[in-house]
Design brief:
By secondary structure, the protein is an alpha/beta fold. It contains 10 helices and 11 strands. It is globular. It binds adenosine-5'-triphosphate (ATP), iron/sulfur cluster and magnesium ion (MG).
Length: 342
Amino acid sequence: MTSPRRDGSEAGILAVRDLRILFPSRDGRDTVKAIDGMDFAVQAGETFGVIGESGSGKTTLGRALVSLLRPTEGQILHDGADPEQLGTRAFRQHRRDYQIIFQDPNAALNPRMTIIDSVVEPLEILREGDANSRRRRGIAMLERVGLSAEAADRYPHQLSGGQKQRVNIARVLMLRPKVIVCDEVVAALDVSIRGDVLNLFADLQREFGLTYVFITHDISVVSHISDRIAVTYLGKLMELGPAEDVIERPLHPYTRALLSAEPIPLPSHLRVDRRIILEGEIPSPVAPPSGCRFRTRCPSVQPRCAKEMPAWREVRPCHRVACHFATADGPQPNNQPAQAAS
Ligand SMILES: Nc1ncnc2c1ncn2[C@@H]1O[C@H](COP(=O)(O)OP(=O)(O)OP(=O)(O)O)[C@@H](O)[C@H]1O
Ligand code: SF4
Ligand SMILES: [Mg+2]
C-alpha cells in the first residue's frame, strides 16, 4: 500500500512518484532527460488532462503510465501496486487494465487485417472465448463506438481517419480496461469530427467507468474533457489543478502564456489581458536550464530563478505550482518587472 506523501502522489488508480525517464541521445554521447522528476496521482473515474509543448515529455509519460516504458528512477503504482514487481504471467493479465491509444489512427491497425480481426486480436492473444463469440462481441463493440456491422469485414484503407480511431477505441475496450491513456487521439482528425469523437470518449467513460489520461498540446481539447489539468514543460510539471481553476486562474507564467496564445473563445472575464509571446524554442532536455527550467522564456524571470529550482507547492486547495513567486492570486501579484534571463 502507498504511504501518505506531501507531493500529491499519495494515492489513486495511478500514482507517479519521483519519476525520471532518461534516454541515451541519438548519437549516444548524452542523456536525454525526457521526464525529470514528476509526482502526481490520478483518481479512478477522472479525466486527467496533460498539456505541454512538443518535446515536453507527454508521450514518454503516457507510455510509462501503461508500462510500455520502464522508469529509469522512481515508481508508477497501479492501484497502489508496482507492476514491475509482478511475475510475467500476472503482468500480462494486469496490463490489460492499463491501455493506450495513439495519435496515428493507423498505428495499431494492421493494413492486411480486416477491422474485425484487429478488434478481436487482443482477446485472441489472451485466448478468451471461441472465434464466434469473439466476433459477436467485436461487432457489438464496433456498433457501440458508432460503426456499422458492415465495417467489420473492411480493411483500414477503406475507412476514414475518424472511423479508424473509433476502431482503435473498440479494440482497446474489448479488454475492458480501467485506465486509457489517450495520446493526442484527435490531433490527426479533421476539426469537424473532433467534437464527435471527444463526445464518444465522454459517453464511454460513463458507461464503462473508465479513467482517462488525456494527453494533448491543444488547450481546447483538455478544457473540453478534463477534470484536472497537468501542465508539463521540459520533463517536469509546472502546474496541476482542477481544470476550471487552471484555465480560469492559472498560477504559472507558462500556463498563462499557453492560454493567451489560445484562439478558443474564452468568456471575456477569463481572457488574459494581452497575448504573451513565448520567445524561442523549448530548450534541449539534454541540458535543461538551471533552477527553474522555464526561466529562459519566462516573462517574469528574476535572478533567483537561475539559482533555485522552484518547490512543487500547493498554493490553492488541490492546485500545485512550480514557481517561486506564484501565490493564490496568480503568477505575479506585484507585477514585478521581468529581467533578462542568463
Ligand atoms: N527513444 C528515445 N530516444 C531518445 N530520445 C527520446 C526518445 N523518446 C523521446 N525522446 C526525447 O524525449 C523528449 C520528450 O519526447 P516526447 O515524445 O515524450 O515529447 P512529447 O511531449 O510527446 O512531444 P510531442 O508533442 O511532439 O508528441 C524529446 O526531446 C524527445 O526527442
Ligand atoms: S520560478 Fe521564475 S522563471 Fe520560473 S516560472 Fe516562476 S518567475 Fe518564471
Ligand atoms: Mg507526443
